[in-house]
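Usage example:
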Amino acid sequence: MSHDFRSDNVAGAAPEVMTALTAASTGFASPYGNDPWTERLNKRLCALFETEVAVFPVATGTAANALALSAVVPPFGAVYCHEEAHIHVDECGAPEFYTGGAKLVTLPGANGKLTPDAVLNALKTAQFGVVHRMQPSALSLTQATEAGTVYRPEEVAALVDVAHDHGMAVHMDGARFANAVARLGCAPADLTWKAGVDVLTLGGTKGGCLAAEAVIFFNPAQAEDFGYGRKRGGHLVSKGRFLSAQLDAWLEDGLWLRLAGHANAMADRLAAGLSALPGATIAYPVEANEVFIRLPETVIVALEAAGFSFYRWDGGLIRLVTSFDTPAWAVDAFVKIAKSA
Amino acid sequence: MSHDFRSDNVAGAAPEVMTALTAASTGFASPYGNDPWTERLNKRLCALFETEVAVFPVATGTAANALALSAVVPPFGAVYCHEEAHIHVDECGAPEFYTGGAKLVTLPGANGKLTPDAVLNALKTAQFGVVHRMQPSALSLTQATEAGTVYRPEEVAALVDVAHDHGMAVHMDGARFANAVARLGCAPADLTWKAGVDVLTLGGTKGGCLAAEAVIFFNPAQAEDFGYGRKRGGHLVSKGRFLSAQLDAWLEDGLWLRLAGHANAMADRLAAGLSALPGATIAYPVEANEVFIRLPETVIVALEAAGFSFYRWDGGLIRLVTSFDTPAWAVDAFVKIAKSA
Amino acid sequence: MSHDFRSDNVAGAAPEVMTALTAASTGFASPYGNDPWTERLNKRLCALFETEVAVFPVATGTAANALALSAVVPPFGAVYCHEEAHIHVDECGAPEFYTGGAKLVTLPGANGKLTPDAVLNALKTAQFGVVHRMQPSALSLTQATEAGTVYRPEEVAALVDVAHDHGMAVHMDGARFANAVARLGCAPADLTWKAGVDVLTLGGTKGGCLAAEAVIFFNPAQAEDFGYGRKRGGHLVSKGRFLSAQLDAWLEDGLWLRLAGHANAMADRLAAGLSALPGATIAYPVEANEVFIRLPETVIVALEAAGFSFYRWDGGLIRLVTSFDTPAWAVDAFVKIAKSA
Amino acid sequence: MSHDFRSDNVAGAAPEVMTALTAASTGFASPYGNDPWTERLNKRLCALFETEVAVFPVATGTAANALALSAVVPPFGAVYCHEEAHIHVDECGAPEFYTGGAKLVTLPGANGKLTPDAVLNALKTAQFGVVHRMQPSALSLTQATEAGTVYRPEEVAALVDVAHDHGMAVHMDGARFANAVARLGCAPADLTWKAGVDVLTLGGTKGGCLAAEAVIFFNPAQAEDFGYGRKRGGHLVSKGRFLSAQLDAWLEDGLWLRLAGHANAMADRLAAGLSALPGATIAYPVEANEVFIRLPETVIVALEAAGFSFYRWDGGLIRLVTSFDTPAWAVDAFVKIAKSA
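Running the assembly step on the lines above writes:
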């Protein structure tokens, strides 16, 4: 009766994705993305985003982020991001590696979110055009954020304005983009290029794929050399159909949003059940599939003793992540144990 | 009645691999390779190679090669390899990228194979210890070679001796290692660490996986920092079970050798059928799953007209690659068209 | 009657250095550091530091710092430094470039100085051995600091202890090491290897050379590959005598300390004269050749109007830097204008 | 009575350069190239090359070459050069380092010179636009060549045509550009931008400076980011006047050509004296300041025994390099010993 709430990557793959992958596994096809599955995926993403996009599937989110940044940031560039951003904290320097040694400039921000003021403030000391300083080149936003919150389209647009005003490109780390879209109910275009985002890394893995992400350029001109960088990084998959088939099935008929919607609902259910506990404090608004909550130590210990897995962030703050495959009974069991502790 | 002989990566995935992958797709597991599938794979590879090995699955052969080289070659190092080696010709500089700018020194060699004399000759001008020169750091052998030939254990050992005598590590690009082992019928250990190989990139993709390779260190001390490099390169797959499950199923009960054996047999069948043709000349011994053959232009044109796909290497030399999934009828149809042309 | 107090690099070269350089300019000598001047410099530095050191002259401080760090920090490493450190703020990412993309982790600290507590605190979240995180690899101290203060030997030792306890090497950016030694009156060994410093970049340029710095390893084993890195970075000067002759003359008979002592004295003179002004506040203890002082805006404007050059740090805070060549009259004239404003 | 003919970098500095440097050593000036010497140098080079140029002084030829290439070659680029080019053989991978891992493609060529046919032939297999292949991005010519020969303006132009026709930039490694110009008697513009060269590294060091080279862009747009790369590489000299003053004095009133002319004349004198010897064969036309000559072993041994220094290239082939400071008596003494051996 226990469950693993450590992350959404403890889940497996959605059955629809597996079925499509199995169907794609027979017969012969051109390698390196010159296959019908990739062609269909490209068309699907152009339709989904309501514009011409350049799409590059890769197998990991770290690769997607680092490669995307390397397309818009020179080696002497600086990338502005939240201090808890995955690209800064969790990728062992992949952005630095792929950009040839760019610098990440980290900014604080409540609820895991950057604000235009914070970015503007940081840019004050940037010294544009001075060769001693690394040059502001990109702003990277995480959607949904590391705190499980989401940027509204107008929030994205306001941040993009600051970035573009200063000649910086805007990257969106969309490892949990599906959760954000499912929550907001808006069009993917509204959260991205219509708000000015230049390049999105759309995460499929956490959302129900096995290992599939897509780097999506809304301005194909910025993607001109991307193919070389992807190959050079070892991220051009030989039997490309196996990446594209995953993403294509995941996106078909809104499956991605249904899966994300379930994960979000499970987070809501957790938050609803736990927030009523004495001594419990929800740390950030629950807007995606993560719940950050402070609980009494006795409760935490009881949950651990019951076999539940989750991360302790610090002191009494724990992180609970739900996924497309988190069962309602596991949420309820978790809440039940917490209540009885 | 046509077929695609361009490469073995035009094939899909072996049913056994797909089945295992599907089985692995349900339920929850620790991410990043801390899962039962990866544990089982590690044990299997230790048993298969009859020694303690350090195993790092990744999704592409280019990543496997470049990361493996980066573990044994400093930025100021030189990697000696055959002039047709995949790492030199086909990876858009991935080895240069991952090593921080090492240099590949290419050597000629009949039938796609390096010889101890060729390596020794090249090392004569290397100037060890001179800071103006890049320092010989690794020898990279391809097994089976780009010419579809295979090194015997004693050939490997003789090359390793030269390398080790000069302080160089030995890397084996085993994208088609299965084909070599299947052909030679020897133990994997005999072709690798018993002959002195330091690190092998064992290719599963071309042999029937979807996208799975394993970097295998026979001296785990050389692998000490590999985990950081793999993460930093974006090659630590989040849901690691999906890489390990492929490789584990592929290696189980000798499947990998049966699949490679079929591919080899299809290459033999092609060679046997075609070599009897007037004007046909087999360019290299057919020892794996590739046939390089010179055919009269009229024959080549007739085969293309019939819908067969393959690469023209130059002039009248074509390359035909078979795979685990190449049907015998396709081979026979190819030969038939060739004969009637 | 005006003067340039912007930096110590607005000065020229000490006459003794020029004389030595001119003497070195005739005749023939082996290139690349295999010359008598370099041999003499090596001996002199071994004697000066009272131990066997490995010495590598280069032409710039940025090169010296970045190359020194690259010798002790892997690409996946993190370098801990003060948030105002030159390596972070003023080198356009040279450390990132030379290390292959390491990350600088910046820490606050009063008076430009790091404290053991600040470093320990930052290391708490470092997660040693976790492949997702860049690994703490070096601590970089600036001596004298960017705030014109100096670390005492026991302060250095306490910081080194923290670093070494965590497996990190210690680099000292000694662009103004001479000013620190001149101020403290201690032995160079006491400030470096006896306190545990692994590698020092000893700055000659700001102290009276034309363009000469020395990377000095106290543990020659760490310098094993340095020669390749220096050459590869384009920092192995062909006519090496011209770097070594500068440094050798600068160090001869204590010239470096006399020159630094003069610069320090001029800073003291400035501070003494200005601190008595109404509305003046010295921002940091004046311990080297820099004065950070807050002055009324009218005073600052009057000084600028009089033709004096200096940097405004922010609001009313200005930085005044003296050098080996700063004349006392210029200091007095500056103070006089300030007083009369 | 012996002499060092190993290289032109065994010489010291021209007296005129030292005098100018000494004159530049007093007083105060803005750092980082914002000084009157640098301004004068820029003007002088614009006049000398009869066009607007962007000039970046650095201290070494290796830095100049690697930085110049990095401005026109992406990480996935290939640089075509002669197999004996300094950038390939003698820079420990500096071009690979600065470009982020580009590949040098080496070509053979008689007398150290590339031909349009050799380049065209190599480009046949380049596969433009194919992501698996590194993309031809620059052609690098050495003037004078490593064999001591020189390209005529029309030879340069013919090579440039091939490069530009294929979208490649043209870099000229002019470590001995002075010797070439002095020999040909043509305008510097004729050998460079009028023949289509994009970027020249003009070597002052071998020609009589202490340590000074200039990267010169004939199309300033290609230099847009160069300042960042130079700083990042640690090659922006703090007291910039000391680089510019060297180059400015060296170029003033044709000094550079008189110095190079003397070196060339000494090479001619050597060649004339030695070629008459029985068993002597000049290997390449003597067109700059290098003599490659095959001599009987007894002669070589006698010269070595007499204390002369020079490099044995292989077997009986030796290289003799003259410089601005090579005395005629040394040449005559060398020839005399050779004759009497």
